[in-house]
Design goal:
The complex is a heterohexamer, with 2 copies of chain A (218 residues), 1 copy of chain B (52 residues), 1 copy of chain C (257 residues) and 2 copies of chain D (204 residues). In chain A, 82% of the residues lie in helices and 0% in strands. Chain A has 218 residues and is an all-alpha fold. Chain B is rod-shaped and about 65 Å long. In chain C, 76% of the residues lie in helices and 0% in strands. With 257 residues, chain C is an all-alpha fold. Chain C has helices spanning 16-48, 62-89, 92-124, 132-153, 157-185, 195-200, 212-256. In chain C, helix 1 (16-48) packs antiparallel against helix 7 (212-256). Chain D contains 5 helices and 8 strands. The longest helix of chain D has 16 residues, at 149-164. The chains are: A mainly alpha (218), B mainly alpha (52), C mainly alpha (257), D alpha/beta (204). Chains in contact: A-C, A-D, A-E, B-C, C-D, C-E, C-F, D-F, E-F. One adenosine-5'-triphosphate sits between chains D (12-13, 17, 35, 37-43) and F (116-121, 146).
């Protein structure tokens, strides 16, 4: 299992492996926002927490289709399924690798982009905290979507369609925490709810993903 | 014939119009597909029992 | 086709042939009953109920809006049940029924959304507001879309049935979660559920509750929508069964060739 | 340690393909699987490997003992050959990739990225994976595709070695491998057409 | 060439072919915006034109990776390159097919989503006009990006990264037109510039794309 | 109508592979390309088909007359076999796919989606594409991979027919096709390592 994690990380870091691309996408989307809504800093600072959360979510989403599909195409997934590893563990490791290569970097650069969008000073801590708690859920939910669509040639868009509605609760609570953090209001409830969602998805969804993957392999 | 709907005539009529169109379209499309599939099944079954 | 043996268990209708025969006999009744209820209810509501003192003639929209909204949710519940049956007992008919119901659910959701939006224009001054009720309906719509898209995208029928069933299960959990999340995010303008309360209330007419004059035609419309739903799902399930059989026959033909 | 298949029936894409499959694969023996294109060899191997469920019948002695090599190689194009093999080594908990590299003459290619190999070189790397799994039963689907004569001989030797140490192999192939092995021709196991009145059956 | 166009359209419409998914993605992104920035309709109506443009752009972007990569993977692109069709024509037809299956539907549903984001009444016409003029440029530029990244396994994210900067001018002028349309100010200049960009990219980029593709094929 | 190759040198991935290639492919003749894995057969065929530029040397008589069949089939999995072939038919401006279907016994598979075929059936559909191109020179890269005996015979007959009507074929393969054809062994054309002093050359 550690071997699998290491391999996935290695693959991500190799040229063309996609590490950093999610980050760059996040960066670019955030940069495009002022171009599309206009440059007034007062407006930007209001929408900043929301935009950053949305950007992080989309960056996660876009990297999902390489999560399992590559292993499917070159036959590794078949071989992994016959290997002495429970499929649940495989799926969980894949989610973890995805979070380490996508979610975590996003969390780390988010403050930087916050500066560019005039995020109010008070908002930074809570933005990072909310992303740190929320992004693992995004990876786990995304793995489920990837497992469902893995057999489809370029299921990328269908994957987005399936996963985005599932992302709604996480996004709402995450963005709520970040927004309340920025305006300095009470944020305990959404924070707890966000943490609850993350824990629950991490505990339960890998089983669903493994089940779905087994169906797809046959 | 149509009752006086006051200033909301367009609102109410468009709501009824659109809904009824949607529902009727659903029924009609379902029935059309049903008919098509039914005849296709008949022809396939006939062909297969003829060919053995 | 007649049924000779008496059904001694409900599961016998999971036999495609028996299901076809039974629904063939039941369908005319459902078509007729649903049309009657809908026509009577809508005509009654549209022509013979007075305008509301506050909402004017727009109350008449309720006869379409509420039944379709109710059925949009119930349709998803029915798909959930059918999915569970498929996953546990693997009756093909039940998977096909879930598949057949989804587009019906989409249309009902659309009708609820559209009538609501049209209603909102005079009432709230805008076509759309991010009210939790409306928003969660929109999310429901997205779940329907994803579900149908998944069915369409997968070639092998059994795989498709399995995957969509799991999606339906997981999706239901997330739909409920979203409902709460959305509620938390924005407390809305939309009235709460009052139809059920109204059943107990006789005569007393508060602003928020639907009074008796509107109640009976509304009930007729709801019954009409339920019947229409059943008729459509039965009919479409028969179509799906036949389509599936065509597929199987063609596959066998090519295998024998 | 024997793989026993009794009355197996298999399906693909919702269509029954083969039935009444009965055979035994003993340790130290190889079995060549023959049959025309499209009869269901790949499907049979996948079923035995546990990747799909059989329609009917039993498979005994297969669990966690099968190493499967499919039409696709399962190589990561951006990893080197050595890295690819090492990965499978740690997944299967074996200890060295050196014998595998030696066996298929891959030492020179060990540090090349798998994506930059020619078709035959890739295939050799894919076959080398079998040796690092340490599994006793090999299920091979047209293993010699794209291999030159020399490499085919390497492969045949690898199989013989494997058999010598008590392993066994089931090999689907259309060409002659020069192996001493019984042939299992499944052409006669093709499913017979059923009468179309059999409505429920038509759903399978 | 017509055969190629028809084939591409057919592929898009086949089950799993991806037609309509770009649309759905557009829809979902638009729906997610209020979740992330909050439900106040005054705020939404300000950012509506920008969000719609950004959403359309992302939906276009996401469907790019199936534009050429599928043909590359199954070898069709090699075969097309040896066929009696100039590669420029192949590329141009591919762009056209992409626009017909992605850009055009986006234009058509944009007004609907405008309603959901409280776009001011005056803004609808110009939103549609700006998208109608701008999306062909998005398809053509996207084809160029797809041609550059075609050889890379799952170049999806890299593709986004390359293409996004190229989309900036189109986005700026397109969103400007839509925004000015919504506020009712003068919008001739950005409209002309947008039209200029589209014409120029359609006239010139296919040659660049074909050249790049030739390089990638060898 | 003759394909003439003089003093050709080819490279792959920035590395010179083969040099001093000289041969002639005349109408009505087939040439079997032989060489061990990784020597550069695929690269040579791609160069001749015009997909990559040669390092040195001339290729005459190739332009717009080559039909190339690579390791991959170029079939769209969601289109049926007939639709796939019809598409190539209209691209190449020929008139019927029926002869191709007949030749490779594909009539029964014509309405199946290409993605649902077995490996060998797919390959047959891929080879049938050659017949609808109407091109005189065939460049085939291991065409018989995954084909059963029967299908190999079909293929050999198709090639013989093609030769009879004045076509020609260059076929890279490791197995015996039962074709009467000259063999072109390129093992001896491998590039010799150059002295390391030759700095500029090392850049090639
Ligand atoms: C687009 C948007 C809308 C959606 C999706 C929507 C959804 C729903 C749903 C799901 C119900 C079922 C209530 C129940 O549980 O019984 C309902 C009922 C109702 N809606 Fe809407 N609604 C929308 C817009 C509106 C608007 C704009 C109005 C009027 C101002 C309105 C007025 C009502 C009324 C009067 C009821 C029945 C009262 C009740 O039974 O609760 N709705 N709507
Ligand atoms: N995904 C699929 N969906 C439906 N049918 C399929 C699918 N894949 C294969 N088939 C069909 O199943 C049958 C068996 O296929 P299989 O791949 O097992 O054959 P095979 O014996 O391995 O042939 P080959 O020698 O060509 O590899 C074939 O007739 C094929 O057309
Ligand atoms: N993308 C690539 N980048 C770098 N080198 C490559 C690449 N593809 C192939 N090579 C190398 O080029 C050489 C020739 O490869 P080619 O595919 O032409 O061989 P081949 O003769 O067709 O072999 P086979 O019989 O195995 O198909 C090989 O040594 C291979 O390692
Ligand atoms: Mg096979
Ligand atoms: Mg080769």
């Amino acid at each position: 299992m550690i071997a699998l994690l290491l391999r996935d990380l290695k693959l991500a870091f190799r040229a063309g492996g996609g590490f950093g691309l999610g980050l760059a996408f996040f960066l670019i989307v955030t940069v495009l926002v002022p171009f599309s809504v206009g440059p007034q800093s007062s407006l930007l600072s209001i929408i900043a927490p929301g935009v950053l959360w949305l950007g992080a979510l989309l960056a996660c989403l876009l990297s999902l289709d390489r999560l399992l599909a590559l292993d499917w195409e070159d036959g590794s997934l078949d071989l992994l399924a016959t290997a002495p590893l429970p499929l649940e563990a495989v799926v969980a490791v894949k989610s973890l690798a995805h979070w380490l290569t996508t979610g975590l970097p996003l969390v780390l650069v988010a403050p930087l982009l916050g500066v560019m969008l005039n995020l109010p000073e008070t908002g930074f801590t809570w933005l990072v905290v909310s992303l740190l708690i929320g992004t693992p859920a995004l990876s786990v939910i995304g793995t489920f979507g990837a497992a469902i669509t893995v057999g489809l040639k370029r299921g990328g868009l269908l994957l987005s369609l399936l996963v985005l509605p599932l992302y709604v609760p996480t996004l709402i609570f995450g963005a709520e925490v970040a927004r309340r953090g920025a305006t300095g209001t009470e944020l305990e409830t959404p924070l707890l709810l966000l943490a609850g969602i993350t824990t629950a998805t991490i505990a339960l969804l890998p089983f669903a993903s493994a089940a779905v993957l087994k169906i797809n392999l046959r | 014939m149509i009752p006086d709907l006051g200033k909301y005539t367009e609102t109410v009529l468009s709501a009824y119009g659109i809904s009824i169109v949607l529902l009727v379209a659903l029924v009609v499309l379902s029935v059309m597909r049903g008919r098509r599939v039914r005849t296709e099944l008949k022809s396939v079954e006939q062909r297969m029992s003829r060919d053995g | 086709m007649t049924i000779t043996a008496k059904a001694n268990s409900l599961w016998e209708y999971a036999n495609p042939r028996k299901f076809l025969a039974t629904s063939e006999r039941l369908l005319p009744f459902f078509w007729l009953a649903s049309t009657t209820c809908l026509v009577v209810g809508l005509v009654w509501g549209f022509f013979f109920t007075p305008d509301d003192y506050k909402q004017g003639s727009t109350v008449k929209i309720i006869y379409l809006h509420v039944p379709s909204a109710l059925m949009a949710i119930n349709c998803w519940l029915m798909m959930l049940a059918a999915s569970l049956i498929w996953l546990v007992r693997r009756h093909h008919v039940s998977a096909l029924a879930a598949r057949a119901a989804a587009p019906v659910g989409i249309v009902f959701t659309l009708v609820a959304l559209v009538t609501g939006a049209i209603w909102g224009q005079p009432m709230w001054g805008s076509w759309w507001a991010w009210d939790p009720r409306l928003t969660s309906f929109l999310i429901l719509f997205l779940f329907y879309l994803g579900y149908v898209a998944l069915w369409e995208a997968i070639e092998d029928p059994d795989t498709a049935a399995d995957l969509t069933s799991v999606l339906c299960l997981v999706g239901s959990v997330f739909a409920i979660l979203s409902r709460y999340a959305v509620n938390f995010w924005n407390q809305g303008l939309h009235q709460g559920a009052s139809v059920m309360r109204v059943a107990a209330v006789t005569g007393s007419d508060t602003e928020e509750k639907v009074s008796n004059i509107y109640f009976f035609p509304l009930m007729l419309c709801i019954v009409g929508f339920v019947l229409l739903f059943i008729a459509l799902v039965l009919y479409r399930t028969c179509t799906e069964i036949r389509a599936r059989r065509i597929k199987a026959l063609l596959a066998r033909e090519r295998a024998n060739a | 340690m024997t793989l026993t298949v009794t009355d197996l029936a298999i399906a693909r894409g919702g269509l029954a393909l083969l039935e009444r499959l009965n055979f035994v694969l003993e340790p130290g023996k190889a079995l060549i699987l023959r049959g025309p294109n499209g009869i269901g060899k790949t499907t049979l191997l996948r079923t035995l490997a546990g990747l799909q469920a059989p329609l009917a019948g039993q498979i005994q002695g297969a669990e966690d003992r099968i190493a499967y090599a499919a039409h696709a190689d399962g190589l990561k194009p951006t990893l080197t050959v050595a890295e690819n093999l090492s990965f499978w080594m740690s997944v299967f908990g074996t200890h060295s990739i050196q014998p595998a590299l030696d066996r298929y003459d891959l030492n020179e290619l060990a540090d090349r990225q798998a994506g930059n190999l020619s078709a035959g070189q890739k295939r050799r790397a894919g076959l080398a994976r079998l040796l690092v799994t340490g599994r006793p039963i090999w299920m091979l689907d047209e293993p010699t595709v794209s291999l030159d004569r020399n490499a085919v001989t390497m492969f045949a030797e690898a199989v013989e070695d494997h058999l010598k140490y008590g392993g066994s192999a089931l090999i689907a192939t259309h060409i002659d491998l020069g192996l001493e092995a019984k042939v299992l021709d499944i052409s006669s196991n093709k499913v017979k057409p059923r009468p179309i009145e059999d409505f429920d059956g038509a759903f399978l």
